[in-house]
Amino acid sequence: MKLLKFGGTSLANARKFLFVADIIEKNFQCGKTAVVLSAPATVTNHLVSICEEIVNYDNMLTIIATLEKIFIDLINDLNKVQSNFLYEITKKNIIRELDQIKNLTHGISLLKTCPKNVRAIIISKGEILSVYIMKNILISRNYKVTIIDPIYNFASSGTYLDSTVDILESKKRIEKIHFQKDNILLMSGFIAGNRKQELVLLGRNGSDYSAAILAVCLKAKCCEIWTDVDGVFTCDPREIPNTHLLKSISYQEAMELSYFGAKILHPRTIEPISQFNIPCIIKNTKNIKSNGTWIKKK
Ligand code: ADP
Ligand code: ASP
Ligand code: MG
């Protein structure tokens, strides 16, 4: 089993979704594959803005309209190039999720406050829609897909917006599921469930952490994190000139980098994979020939 995680920068438009589907397909042809997806780039920030516009209902509706345009443009573009794309079903899914946000925002605007559990539901929608869209691309290519529910399977504790997953309990739950061998496994990143089976989030950038947990639960031989840079550099290549790509770093070094704020990885990503000694590689969807950076024990 291989675990692949794609960040929002790799899912920013229809072309990128199709490219990611190609990578998933290639991997699945070589063996069992599980995939964790983030929200398309910018979507989570828009969702967060909705929750911050409590006093202005019209502004909330404007942001929802922006989101609707992002997703409808995306599936319109997909429909032009992906044969047999399940356009109508996908559109219905998108409208249903956005309608739920509209209903919640109406409530928030009346209450003039946004409770954290409602905030979590709204902010999670990008990851949920990414999975619907990818599922329907893969089905249109004749693959079978199983969706893993992170609310039930990722047992977590903490706050609605920043929870920590109980690895052993989640592993038990996922081990009980009977996965069909010929199915690609798909899961929304960033999301987990609390003791009351309510949706909670894993903190900003949390899909990396979701990928690490799922890699452990599925006993993956490798966890691949696909992003928009060639791997881990000596510092943020977008901020600092003349940085160097690192061929490999230890779990300890990766943990230090992320805890001190390197956005390339969510800080809690390394703990599960290091505990279960699962090698991780950071790869670039914009430059698949690059060797990436390995994160291993040594
Ligand atoms: P994704 O959408 O794939 O999760 P992110 O934007 O969350 O991507 O993380 C990738 C970004 O992390 C890069 O574009 C880069 O700007 C930033 N980054 C910060 N520190 C580093 C580092 N040391 N090496 C590589 N990238 C880094
Ligand atoms: N979409 C979420 C965020 O922007 C989680 C992630 O991308 O990992 O923080
Ligand atoms: Mg990220």
Notable traits:
298 residues, alpha/beta, eight-stranded mixed sheet, two-stranded antiparallel ribbon, 11 helices, 12 strands, globular, binds adenosine-5'-diphosphate, binds aspartic acid, binds magnesium ion
Q: How would you sum up this structure, described in words?
A:
- The chain is an alpha/beta fold.
- The protein contains eleven helices and twelve strands.
- It has helices at residues 14-30, 43-52, 57-81, 87-111, 116-123, 125-140, 150-153, 167-176, 207-217, 251-259, 270-275; strands at 2-6, 33-37, 144-147, 156-158, 163-165, 183-188, 191-193, 199-201, 222-227, 248-250, 280-284, 293-296.
- The strands form three sheets. An eight-stranded mixed sheet has the order 3-6-2-1-9-11-12-10, sandwiched between helices.
- The two termini are 22 Å apart.
- It binds adenosine-5'-diphosphate, aspartic acid (ASP) and magnesium ion.
- Adenosine-5'-diphosphate is lined by residues 7-10, 38, 205, 227-229, 232-233, 235-238, 257, 262-264.
